[in-house]
Model the fold of this input.
Amino acid sequence: MTRKNILLIGGGGHAHSCIEVILSTTDYGVAGIVDPTYQVDTPQDVLGFPLWGRDEDLPTLRQRFDYALVTVGQIKTAALRMKLFELLKQLEFALPPIIASTAVVSRYAQIGEGTVVMHQAVIDAGTVVGANCIVNTGALAAHDCNIGDHSHLSLHAVICGNVRIGKCCYIGANATVVQDCNVDDYTFVRAADLVKPPTFVSA
Done:
């Protein structure tokens, strides 16, 4: 089967991880990278994949490429990822969810467009993950959760059952959100924090 090559928007550390995930799939390959460090007439690459231009070149690149993925990371804010995602939508790129070969995603889960589920992550039955999310390496979202658009479950974060995570949230590495919690939009949960019900509100 012919792989569909994806244009990656962002060439930093998160892009490195996304490349590894994409290459683990059977459906997708990497077309190249768009990054602000691009210089005209200077050959550049990220892990061997060429840089094709900067964000302002996307309308032209859309004529060559059909698929794209936001590969800018997210810690303090989702603003840049949101901006890039909306730009790709306006340009009518296809934004498939990307699921690592070693991730476990229930047949009864839903994964939104442009979301990446990284190696050894687990998404259980009845859970809905929104658009443009990062479910990072080893993260667990148990049954019947709802993860809002543009949110990031960091390395080995644990989301117990029946949890609602709002949009644009960051759940830090090794943090645990206890069952039945309601995490408000734009909440930042620090690494290794324990979040208890009923509601956790960002300061």
